[in-house]
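Cross-check.
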Amino acid sequence: MQIPVSLLIALGVQQLCQLIKFVSCSIRDRNLSPRYFFSSGGMPSAHSAFVTALCVAVGVRSGIGSEVFSATLVLAFIVIHDALRVRGALQQVIHIIKKDHPEEGGPAARLPDTIGHDAAEIAAGIILGIILALPLAFFSLRFVPGNSGNPL
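Predicted model, tokenized:
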């Protein structure tokens, strides 16, 4: 079974965003911490970058008029909305709980520090998803078999 090129592009973009998050948080904290490579939330939004890159790659490889592009566009909107509204609101609630219950080792201490995103983190993920996926998708049209249609 061959893995779809659009999925490989999206996974690569997502991993690069997690690496950016890991490096920037490690520099900020002056401590090399692999947990940032696997964490949710933070700058940039790897979820937003992933679904944006998938949408861009599918649009380039299959065409923006294709059914599969429509599906990836709807998926992108749902994931981005969830990251901003649902998980972003949850993160605000967690910060309030932790502020009201600062005791070490208590239930609040076990809550994650980051889980959602603010608008800037999501915008950064979307921009990175577009900037990284576009050249890879167009490159794949020329050099990777399996293009299913005209990108326009």
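Residues 67-100 form the longest helix (34 residues). The mean pLDDT is 83. Passed to J.P. for a second look.
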